[in-house]
Amino acid sequence: MIELEETLRKGGIYVISHAAARKTLLSALERSPIIAAVKSEEQLEHCLESECTVVVLLFGNVCNIASLVEKVKDADKLALVHMEFIDGLAPREISVQFIRQFTKADGILSTKQQLIRCAKEQGLIAVQRFFMIDSIAFSNVQKQLHAGDAVSAAEEPHLPLGYRFSGWSAI
User: Fold this and answer.
1) Buried b (16+ CB within 10 A) or exposed e, 71-110
2) Residue partners of 139: CB distance under 8 A and separation at least 6
3) Number of neighbouring beta carbons within 10 Å of residue 141
4) Are strands 14-17 and 125-128 parallel, antiparallel or unpaired?
5) Residue 57: beta bridge partners?
6) What is the pLDDT of residue 60?
7) DSSP 61
8) Is 110 left (phi over 0), alpha (psi -120 to 50) or beta?
9) Beta-strand relationship, 35-38 and 78-82
10) What is the pLDDT of residues 65-117, one digit of tens each?
């Protein structure tokens, strides 16, 4: 598992999560290191037949997100919901609570720090996505990491900063 944590750090993916939720994610990624990020029903159906163990839903709305998550869970995969791409959800803590109470999602992905904090409090896997578009953005991410608002996949404060984000790929 240490090798996987090193890979996640180098990829620039930062995970803020309840310890048990983080362990669940790392265990799933050890079985299959591919994270499927899907934007449509067609892509979802395709990834459900694949070997990947983690699926990020990049589409949906408040009316169908529970059924989309249920399809992922029925395929014995972890389901993460990208909060900014679900129609009808505001970038507020109540949206995280909605995902927790009305779906079987294992976690969320977001660029919003307050949503990540709320997900962590709810015991969900919480992945914060950073955009490194310039030196100011890079500096802000460093400040967040040093302030304890975000931690690496291993939650170790001595980790080097500045690894680039490798991006998400859709199946």
Assistant:
1) bbbebebbbbbbbebbeebeeebebbebbbeebebbbbbb
2) none
3) 20
4) antiparallel
5) 38, 81
6) 97
7) B
8) beta
9) unpaired
10) 999 999 999 999 999 999 999 999 999 999 999 999 999 999 999 988 899 88
CA dihedral 36, 40, 45, 49 (to 10 degrees): -20
Query: What average pLDDT is seen over the chain?
Result: 77
Structure tokens at 46: 């395709």
Q: What's the full length of the chain, in residues?
A: 171
Written in H, E and C, the secondary structure of the chain is CHHHHHHHHHCCCEEEECHHHHHHHHHHHHHCCCEEEECCHHHHHHHHCCCCCEEEECCCECCCHHHHHHHHHHCCCEEEEEHHHCECCCCCHHHHHHHHHHCCCCEEEECCHHHHHHHHHCCCEEEECCCCCCHHHHHHHHHHHHHCCCCCCCCCCCCCCCCCCCCCCCC
Read off the amino acid at residue 159. L
Strand, helix or coil for residue 106: coil
Q: Which two tokens stand for residue 47?
A: 């990834």
Q: Which two tokens stand for residue 131?
A: 């955009």
Amino acid at residue number 37: A
* Structure-token match 């720090």, residue found: 113
